[in-house]
Amino acid sequence: EMLRNCEQSERVLATPSGVPSKVSMLDVGICTGFIAGLERGIYIGRIGAESLYLSCVPPEATQEQFLRVALLWLRNHPEMLHKDAAPLIAIAFRDAFPCPKPPPPKTKKK
Length: 110
Hints:
Layout: H1 2-13, H2 25-48, H3 63-76, H4 85-96
Helix pairs in contact: 1-2, 3-4
């Protein structure tokens, strides 16, 4: 499936005069969005997933929720919109889906 989607993207890139008639723009979007999302995920992991960007998204969360969380955060922080989108959306997820705080370390009784 992804091969087909990305082949559609390749056709668009190979046609400088516009979109070829037999191209599904949905397939193009799936491929390019997947690749961009993967690249940004790797970037977030590399710059510090330990604390600033860590979130605990519940498994039942939906794509619609992700979209709404991102939009709400971006709309509420217009002063940040000039920055890279990946960390901003990671912060939005962190704020919406915080991880539980670990219990304090147990102290040894003497």
